[in-house]
Amino acid sequence: MPGSVLTHRFDPKSLVIGAFALFGWSEEPVPPEDREGHVQVKRALSIPVAGGEC
Q1: Per residue in 17-32, pLDDT tens?
Q2: Separation between Cα atoms, residue 50 and residue 54, nearest integer Å
Q3: What DSSP string runs through 5-36?
Q4: 17: left (phi over 0), alpha (psi -120 to 50) or beta
């Protein structure tokens, strides 16, 4: 969602937003230490997922 901050704020709606995203990646959808969360997001989205830059 342009203009909004969604980093580290994953919830199931984030997958829907990401699936229809107008941008080319998902930036830090879950906290860096949440490995299982990253796996779930990556499996659900076809766009790249950036993380671990904090």
Answers
A1: 666 666 677 788 888 8
A2: 11
A3: --TT---HHHHHHHHT-SSS-EE--S-TT-HH
A4: alpha
